[in-house]
Structure formats: C-alpha cells, structure tokens
C-alpha cells in the first residue's frame, strides 16, 4: 500500500487523558441533549465520537443534506468544552442508497448478497459505494474541517466488521489486479501457489476466482492471498476517505481497529501506521472465562496495540461499561471492573478510555447494550462508577504522554499466520492461534513480565527474549531477524508449526519447523496431532494435548521428553545454546503448568525482570517520562495483595509503601520517587 504517515507528531485530541464515548444525539429529542452535556461535565467527559452512523440522518436523500442537527450538536459540545471525534458515517449507507444500488452490499462465499439493514453492508470494490461515500465525506470535511471542536476524524467504523471479505465479481476483478501488482505475472502466481496440484494451473487472469463455495479446501496460497487482498481492499477505502479529509482539514485522522487475542479479520498491524492515533475497540469476551482470564485477554489486546504504536500512546476507542448485546449471554461488569478494566488499558499505553456508548439507546438493534448513562439513569451503580472513573482519569492527567517502560520481552504475532493455521486441510483443524499465543503471554502476565506483542516486521534489537508461537507462515527476513536475537546473546522460544511454511503458504522442506530448524538445532519428521481428549505424558510430569511431533536433535539438548505414546523417549522441549544466547523449541501444545515451567527457564536465562514479584492476577506495569515513573497496580484477584512498592497513589491521594496493599479488585497508580531513567 502507499507509504505510511506516522502520527508521531499528531496532536492528541484532548488535553490529558481522553474520556468519553460514542454520542448519538440524533436518537434523542433536543431537550435531552442539554441533560447530556451537563452530565458529561459531571462525569468528566472531554471527548465524544459523533455521527458514526449518521449518514442517513444527514444525507436524507441523494445529495440532499440536513446539517442542522449536526451543526447544533457540535456547537453545543464545543460550548461545553467537549472535543469531537467526528466520524465519517460511511459504515452504514442510507436506505435510499442501498435500495437504489443493492449491488453495493457484499457477497458471501456462497454467493448470497447481504441484504440492507445491517452495518458495513458495502463492498470495498463497489465503485458506486466509493463515489457516494467520498462525496459525503467531502461535504462533511468542507463543513467541519476547521471547526474548533473537531479534534479527530474517525473514518467509518470497525472497517471489516461485517464486510471483511466480499466474493462478488468486482472483488474478483480487484483480487486479480492485486495479484498482478504483488506477483508481477501469471506464471509467478502459478509458481507461488503451486497450481500443478489438482491441475489448477491458470492460463489467463480471468480464471482466477476468490475462494468461493463451501468446500473448505482452497489452495493455501490462493486463500492467504485473498485474505491479504481483502485487508488491503478495505485499507484502500480507508485511505481514500483519509485523503479526502486531509484535502480540507488539518485534523488528524484515525479509524477504530478491532484487535483482540487471536487472528483478526483484517491485518490491522499494517493499517496502524496510516492512523494518526492508533485506536482500538475492546470488549471483554466472557463465555465461560473465569475472572483473571478476561483481564489477561484485555492485557494481550493492549500489548498488541502498543506493538502497533511503538513509542506513542494509543487510544481505547470503545469498550463497555457492562454487558454488550452481541454475545450469547451478556455479562454485566462486577463493581470495580469499569475502573479496573479501563485503567488496565491506560497502564499499557492507552491515553484514555472511551466507551460505546454515552447514553443507552431506547430503540434499535442495540437497545440492551450497556452505556455510560444506562437506562436507569444517574441513580445506577454504573453511572456512579463512570463518574468515579472520570475522577480517576483527571487525577492521572500527569500520566498522559508518558510511555510504557520499554519491554525486554516480545512476542511475534501475525494475522496471516493465524489465518493459515485455521483454514484448509490442516493436520489438525481445531488448533487455535489465540489459545496458543494467549498461553505464552498469560504465563508472562502471571509473572508481572511486560511483553510487547509485535508484528513480524518489527526490529527486535531491544529485546532479550522473543517468543514465536505457532507462526506458521514466515518469510526469510523474519526468520533471519529471529536468529539475530540468539546470535547477539538473546533467548528465543519457537513453538510447534512455526516456520513450517513460507510467505506463500508453501511447506519448507527438509524437516519441521523449516525456517527455524537450523537455529533450533532440532527438527521433526512427522506431526502427531492428538485426538479430542487424548493426552501424552511428559517426563517433567506435565502433559501435552492437541499436538505432538517426533523430534530429532541436531545440536540441541532435550529439556523435556515425551513419556508416553509412540513418541516416548523422544524430545518434546529442546534448547540449543549459541554463545550467550539460546534457542528453545516446544514441539507440543503444553498445559498451563508446562508453559509456566518453560517460561521460568526463559526468564532466568534471558535475565528479563519481573516488574515486581506478586501473585498471578496482580498486574503491574510502569509508565515513565524521563526520571518520573508511574507504577500501575491492578488486582484482578479476590484477595487483597501486598507488594513491595512505594510512592504517592494518585487515585487515593495518599503516600504508600514500602509495602503497599492493593485491595481485592482494586487499582493503585503510584507516582514513584524520582530515579534515573534506565539506559
Ligand atoms: C462495536 C461497534 C459499536 C457497537 C459496539 C457494541 O463493535 O463499533 O458501534 O456496535 O460494538 O458492542
């Protein structure tokens, strides 16, 4: 894609930390708005995202616009000192447009065209959609591009949420153009995808189709390229809107990403450099997750954001004050969680906490979604906690603009690897990328070790420990960068299936894990995926589930061996020392205890320190600027925790330490005594 415009110098939308949420005044009579701004002031709200789904309420008919309510809303917010993150409302095309041009809507793999009525019901290759969208964005930017209230542009909403893939004919044509640009020639495409298999050689570009249908066995190269193309097609739309905005306005431009624990629907890491403020929407997923796991999921997502936004703050653009409405059973947050979860993001680099949405909607699809101002109004527990959070964020103003202390551990995560792992005719179709990388990150989190979660192109120079979990698709450059960590004395951990394929999805021959086998001094000749419920014993007392391999040593030593199954006696976990560095291989999906034991070795060997020593579930992260440091302590457990930490607690306004109690479920943020910045 086009050269990125790093937003390092973009002004932050608010003075200090940002606080607020999506504001949808168009859903309410005008009289309610006065109540809104009064209550926003009470809660300390200083930024709202306005107009996200307001295309149809402004452009009421083709090229006929009623700006009156939006003029009024922006003016009112400005008069009350509330900054506006103004959205281009292109996520939800108006009904008149979808009715006149139903071909705008995306087509699913089975040929079904999405009907109107949802959101993001547009195909990024639709020339009609693009024309109408940009025309409206142009009008919006001309009208408000230099309005003093507008401090940030918010392009669309969660691009890819609902339209991550489109399989229509326009997309097929776009895919072919993208392939031409990437590979140069049809012969190169045939070679990259290995189309000799099943006689799928292409003799003309028109023969190439998106992976339509339901057979579930597309050529892996085609599949991966279609995923990449789809991400780039959406990014191209974002960039087209951004370009129009920048034509009329100097206000920084962003869009809200959706980054969680596993593989994302689009490759947002490649989008982040094109945003002035890297912004994420994060909702705690519950299902059956116990407390602690929820918060770990949050920490992992936040660490991914920091990995996409090196050295500069990012912004939590959306989260919830309670149950969302799109999960099967929408869990309310327990008392204290709104504050703790929000400050968990701030601890890890977000310069603010924003929510969907300000006032709960009475009508419409999301009428039962939680909000900052719930249906029950200001006498609700949620409102009280929202006001409390606003007070905390004000108390933390001096933290704004500080950087999270540089991590010495990193984990390489790539959406393409996640896509490859979870699709097609795999040896095991139920492996989960999110589960595997979550297990390793969790063990570090449990030990209060900060870990940047970075995309493959990241420079690894500053890290003493690099973890590479199931990174199935790896190019030579990434493999070389990982090897360089070991060569300069660092520690690397590679887990099963990593490096098995090249960037085209072709298997690297000569023994698994292809790209890393030499570095690891160990290789395997055969995978032994396990059946549901099957476990293989290990000689350290642990067990493997899901995945095992027959490993051979070639310079490495066995640290843990298989103890049962036909692999008994063979290496399961290996280590190869190189000078001061070492390279570890884990050939099996270990349980949490096994992962923890390996992580203990890795930390001891690499010298990567814990922020402090505490029980699992006590989260500790430091942000700093020059010789000033702030220690965030978040207690996700049900017991009070006592830790060795001292300073002035910005939240309670008291000096604490040298031993500090963090109450069960509570948070402290300590301004620590001055000390020289490291390095
Ligand atoms: C987000 C979306 C919001 C709202 C929210 C509900 O994904 O951006 O507009 O729908 O989910 O949780």
What does this structure look like?
The chain is an alpha/beta fold and about 675 residues long. It has 3 domains: about 20-165 and about 250-395, Alpha-Beta Barrel (TIM Barrel); about 410-605, 3-Layer(aba) Sandwich (Rossmann fold); about 620-670, Immunoglobulin-like. It is built from 17 helices and 31 strands. A 9-stranded parallel beta sheet has the order 7-6-5-2-1-11-10-9-8, with helices on one face. Helix 6 packs across helix 8 (about 220-250) and helix 10 crosses helix 14 (about 435-445). The model is unreliable at about 1-5 (pLDDT under 50). It binds beta-D-galactopyranose (GAL). The site of beta-D-galactopyranose has 12 residues, from loops.
Task: Please specify the SSE layout and strand pairing.
Elements: E1 18-23, H1 30-43, E2 47-50, H2 55-58, E3 59-61, E4 64-65, H3 68-79, E5 83-88, H4 95-100, H5 127-144, E6 150-155, H6 169-183, H7 186-193, H8 220-248, E7 253-254, E8 256-257, H9 268-271, E9 279-281, H10 293-308, E10 314-318, H11 337-347, E11 350-355, H12 381-395, E12 403-404, E13 409-412, H13 415-422, H14 433-446, E14 451-454, E15 465-468, H15 476-487, E16 491-495, H16 517-520, E17 522-529, E18 535-537, E19 543-545, E20 547-553, E21 557-561, E22 571-578, E23 581-586, E24 589-590, H17 592-606, E25 618-625, E26 628-635, E27 641-644, E28 647-649, E29 654-656, E30 659-662, E31 667-671
Parallel strand pairs: 1-2, 1-11, 2-5, 5-6, 6-7, 8-9, 9-10, 10-11, 13-14, 13-15, 15-16, 16-23
Antiparallel strand pairs: 3-4, 12-25, 17-20, 18-19, 19-24, 21-22, 22-23, 25-26, 26-31, 27-30, 28-29, 28-31
Bound molecules: beta-D-galactopyranose (GAL).
EC number: 3.2.1.23
Catalytic activity: Hydrolysis of terminal non-reducing beta-D-galactose residues in beta-D-galactosides
Keywords: Glycosidase, Hydrolase, Metal-binding, Zinc
